[in-house]
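Technical note accompanying the year-one report. For the benefit of new consortium partners, we illustrate the data format agreed upon in the data management plan: each record pairs a sequence with a structure-token string. No post-processing was applied to the example shown here.
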Amino acid sequence: MNEEFYYTISQPVVAEFKDRGSRFLAYAYPLASVQEFKEKLKQLKEEHPKAAHHCFAYRLGVDGNTFRVSDDGEPSGSAGKPILGQIDSKELTNVLVIVVRYFGGTLLGVPGLINAYKTATSLALQTTPVIQKQLEVNYLLHFDYTKMNDVMMVVKQYNCTVLKQEQHLFCDVEIGVPKNRLEEVLFKLGDMHTVEVKKL
């Protein structure tokens, strides 16, 4: 995998696959954190309370170590793994796919389930644009609010992402700094003596 970029999806999307009466609704989302995943899953369970299963897989980060799969009551390995397999085959990360199944009365068997979850996920991932994003390192900046303009100028100039900000007398801003511009950004921020920079 490239050291400076990764691939993810640009927007949420839903696709549907039907097999012998069962409906498989695949919801794909760009994902930033495990907390966000929990919120999305809760939301879909509330939207589809009558669904038989809410199976999912996600992958976060670029080291490949942060992922999770769930068969949610389907036979082991028949749902979560095929979903993750589709995310991985497209070399995507920071992606969540939840497949909501409405049971149609006919058992599909394990091969049928694997095919259904795989196909639903594949359809969803085909319909959303894949985008290349810069690898970022997250930092917390703490500074007096009078420095806000100077700090934000650096953030914009180097295409940093603002992840979170809180403003009181002092400001706390979490930013993602593109890996390939890290030295320059840290140097610029270091020049502003009253800005505390902490790696997250």
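Partners are asked to follow this layout when depositing records. The chain has five helices and eleven strands.
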